[in-house]
Amino acid sequence: MADIELLNQDTIDKIAAGEVVERPASVVKELVENAIDAKATMITIEIEKGGTSKIRVSDNGIGIPSNQVRKAFLRHSTSKLRDASELSIVKSLGFRGEALSSIAAVSKVELITKTKDDMLGTLYEIEGAIEKKIEEIGAPNGSNFIIRDLFYNTLPRQKFLKSPKAEGNLINEIVEKLALSHPEIAFQLSIDNKNKLSTIGSGKLKDTIYQLFGKNITKNLIEIDESNELFNLKGFICNSSVYKGNRSFENIFINNRFVKSKTISSAIEKGYEGYLMQHQYPFFCLMVDIDTNMVDVNVHPTKMEVRIDHQKDITNLINEIISNSLNKIDDIRDYVNDEVPEFIDDEPNVKSSYNNDVSGVTTPEKPFDSDNKNKHELISESDSTVEYESIMNSSSISEFDSTAKPELISHKGIYEPYEEKGFEIKKQEVKSEINNIKKQSNKEESQLSFLSKDAVVKHSIIGQLFSTYWLVEYDKSLYIIDQHAAHEKVMYEKIVSSIKDNTMSTQQISPPVIVTLNSLEETFLNDNIDIFNQVGYEIENFGGHEYTITGIPYGIYGVDAKTLFMDMIGDCIQASGIKDNTVILERIASMSCKAAVKGNTKLSYREAKELINELLMLDNPFHCPHGRPTIVKMTRYEIDKMFGRIQ
After folding, report:
1. What CATH number does the domain containing 474 carry?
2. Are 621 and 500 found together in one domain?
């Protein structure tokens, strides 16, 4: 056995850095969270080559006192925690005291920082955990971190990084989450001198969602604002028009901290059952406010995983809130909105307060770059390379006051920074657009609901299309109803209702159907035979592994009883671990929908009218049991526009 030796400090620092700094996105997350904790109202992030070449994070926060700058880079140094007793009530985003130490251990760091009480700021340079320079310098209030050559002294780490574009996308995602969790802060992210993300910091989550995701998502938002003895839930979900094939649209924040919680995500997704198809995931941005004593954020170094007390009760309540919120709206799929998922995937985040094409605000072509030879000299107001951080910190951003001109002291005198008037302009633009969306929503809500009693009598069934779709005209709109999806929904609700009311009847079949089960299927059937009897099945053992089915649920016509039963058994077994009888009953009801009338089947006008009337009497007639829309809407305006009648 080799001798046991203590590791040297350099090795210890690099190992510790590996736990906190996994990739450039980790650096951005730690620095931006520190800026948020420093009460910044504006934060700018600049990235080059995926963050490996350069990361710059600037803020207008409280800054670091000059006599504490060195201490800030020591391991386990923090202003947010005093002892272990405070771990259970941590409210700040960063608290471990390892971020700056870890970053400095694997990169070249330059910090310019100043507090409002200091006349001068501090320039501090540290490379590979070795201090290189510390001196006074003229600077605006706040902190400006520049991280260069990430992992320059730990080359094996670089091999595990993705391409610069992929690393940049990860950074974009991190900043996006932080912007959503703090709508009161104005964020700007640029990657390789291209603006990727900007928010105005109005304090309204809806404004931030609009700037990050655009109008198509914003106009389909459903506001959530619920409170109970366990938690407060605020934020927005979207109707079924907005979805993705992955969970990248899902945003959960616990006490303003973005987290990944499978249980909470599953609870929300379950609330969408019947609204979205399989492998479709909703958009939501929800803030869960829980007593800090009930949340343990000290689970993982990234602090993206948490433990929650009363987790089952909380998730059940969240599921109920989501389900009830969706049930309150007429979730009719708009023809235009069917393009939303693809459009959003391709749409860049151009809702920028700095983007010339959007707001007319001029961004300096050459932002202040500390690589310049005279990097710490102040620049005249006419110079196009005016330091962007000075712009950010020169005015009272929280009030968008473009006239304030605080003086910045430096070695060479006084400098009055460039006035950034565009923030007020963009703020008004966003407010105007949000108000337009709100007016449009209010106008739609003021019209009679398609399902109201007064509306139904005014429906005009104008025919069947392709022996599959029924066309209904109402209130300057065309409603297209899928007869198969509609019949599925009607049958599903009838069966579920009969099962729950214990009124399900049996229809006899002759000759009986004989099925052969394997041991797993046989065990499942025997364990749940009472449930099968409850829903209308009559099943007896025929000897060995064979069983006879002499009765099936009433109302299932034109379906191969043997195939239906075997598919149902297989489907239930796949849901292994589910012991809730209600879930099994709903699966049986869902499988029974195979008996619904198919497309390409000609229905009479009377049959269609009866089906549509039955559909519209349901609490949620807008989706079949599998989440497909039953009704799609096209307005007169949209049709006129397609034919060029209006522009």
Report:
1. 3.30.1540.20
2. yes
Note whether 247 and 177 are same-domain residues.
no
- Determine the Cα–Cα distance for residues 104 and 148; give it in Å rounded to an integer: 10
Contact 278, 244 (CB under 8 A): no
| In a domain? residue 252 | yes
Q: Assign 515 to helix, strand or coil.
A: strand
> Over 535-590, what HEC string results?
CCCEEEEEECCEEEEEEEECCCCCCCHHHHHHHHHHHHHHCCCCCCHHHHHHHHHH
pLDDT band at 14 (very low <50, low <70, confident <90, very high): low
Burial of 463 (0-12, 13-18, 19+ CB in 10 A): exposed
In-domain check, residue 237? yes
Contact predicate 36/43, CB 8 Å: yes
Q: Do 258 and 163 fall within a single domain?
A: no
Give a yes or no: residue 21 inside a domain. yes
| pLDDT exceeds cutoff 80 at 7 | no
42-48 vs 186-191, strand pairing mode: parallel
Which residue range is the domain that position 632 belongs to? 448-647
Distance, in Å, from the CA atom of 89 to the CA atom of 477, rounded to the nearest integer, reads 54
146 shares its domain with 227: no
State the CATH number of the domain containing residue 161.
Answer: 3.30.565.10
Question: How many CB atoms within 10 Å of residue 566?
Answer: 16
Q: pTM of the full predicted structure?
A: 0.70
CA 583 remoteness from chain centre: 27
Is the pLDDT reported for residue 364 higher than 80? no
- 219 and 146 in one domain? no
- 358 sits in the region (left: phi over 0; alpha: psi -120 to 50; else beta) called alpha
* Distance set, CA 282 to CA 247, 285, 304, 321 (Å): 8, 10, 21, 15
Q: Which candidate, 77, 64, 45, 39, places its Cα nearest to that of 121?
A: 64
Three-class SS of 432-450: HHHHHHHHHHHHHHHCCCC
3-state SS assignment for residue 513: strand
pLDDT one-digit tens code per residue, 505-558: 888 988 999 999 999 999 999 988 988 888 889 999 999 999 999 998 886 766
Distance (Å, rounded) from C-alpha 126 to C-alpha 95?
Answer: 22
Residue 42 belongs to some domain of the structure: yes
Q: Answer yes or no: do 181 and 256 share one domain.
A: no
Among 305, 325, 346, the domain-final residue is 346
Q: Are 171 and 232 within one domain?
A: no
3-state percent breakdown (helix, strand, coil) of the chain, nearest 5: 40, 25, 40
The long-range contacts involving 353-358, CB below 8 angstroms and separated by at least 24 positions, are: 353/186, 353/188, 353/198, 353/199, 353/200, 353/211, 353/422, 353/423, 353/426, 353/427, 354/188, 354/195, 354/198, 354/422, 355/195, 355/198, 358/426, 358/429
Max CA separation in the chain (angstroms): 101
Indicate the number of domains in the chain. 3
- Residues 89, 235 within the same domain: no
Structure tokens at 434: 């949000």
Closest residue by Cα to residue 290 from 310, 262, 269:
310
Q: Report how far residue 226's alpha carbon sits from residue 232's, in angstroms, rounded to the nearest whole number.
A: 6
What is the per-residue pLDDT across 447-467, written as a single tens digit (0 to 9) for each? 457 877 778 888 889 999 998
- Name the β-bridge partners of 569: none
